[in-house]
Amino acid sequence: xxxxxxxxxxxxxxxxxxxxxxxxxxxxxxxxxxxxxxxxxxxxxxxxxxxxxxxxxxxxxxxxxxxxxxxxxxxxxxxxxxxxxxxxxxxxxxxxxxxxxxxxxxxxxxxxxxxxxxxxxxxxxxxxxxxx
Length: 132
Description:
Blueprint: E1 2-3, E2 17-23, E3 31-37, H1 49-57, H2 60-63, E4 72-83, E5 92-100, E6 105-114, E7 118-131
Parallel strand pairs: 1-2
Antiparallel strand pairs: 2-3, 3-5, 4-7, 5-6, 6-7
């Protein structure tokens, strides 16, 4: 189920996820997407909610992106996850926004959500954004 996912984003790791885009993907303001792993991290083993949460956190810069992915690349130079509650299910929400300066340095920030309990933490990524 890739509801609302732009076609140009359907490459690599993005294809290993199920997506539900709810708000402003690629537009102004905070974007909201719900994601879950479509395949296990390790073949033949079940993936825990915490492992899913960590893997999905890496997509915050894409969820909050404001630039055309066909014209720009978004390299995550670091990723920090702060959780104050444990994820309980497979669907993780990201309410994300990304800002990029004129020199190509950027910051992505997102509130992480669990479908059953609501907000569970935050994710931050510093970015290097370049034209393709």
